[in-house]
Amino acid sequence: MPSTIALFSSSRRHGNTGRLIDRIASELKIETVDLAGLRISPFDYDHCNRDDDFEPLMRRVLAHNQIIFASPIYWYAVSAGMKVFLDRISDFLELPDLLPEGRGLRGKTGYVVCTSASAEAAPEFMSAFDEVFRYLGMRLGGALHVNCTDGYVPLEHDPIARDFAMRVREPGLAEADA
Predict the structure, then answer these.
(1) pTM of the full predicted structure?
(2) Mean pLDDT throughout 90-97?
(3) Is 172 exposed, middle or buried (0-12, 13-18, 19+ CB in 10 A)?
């Protein structure tokens, strides 16, 4: 199984998206990083924020072949913490001392896990990840959206999480299903 890490960001750690990514991470036996528990400053053109938790986290992320990005859909977009994380990837693409490491994102596989009170993920939400992955040279391995209009319902949503975890565990299966 390829090495995988999950990045999670939401205003509620144990809300719908948190429960979903915890179920997936449990199936995969992987680490889930809650971005809210870290000190990650917004992107700064002068890069005066290099002493926060972003660079050490990014190095942990770069040590994995697969990255799961988990966020609820807020107004057709990712959570604020996920947006800050995605923006800060620019540090690894602009700073000469980080650029060689930043190039390490090329060829990695990214997955998207999201929840909302809609039948499908907002196209704007998914297209943002499509563009980010394309720009970074990453491959979109798959996405999972769960409609949580009635909250996270384990009887209904746990089997979906298990199926998604199986596709992440065995990436060739996801390609065969496509």
Answers:
(1) 0.94
(2) 95
(3) exposed
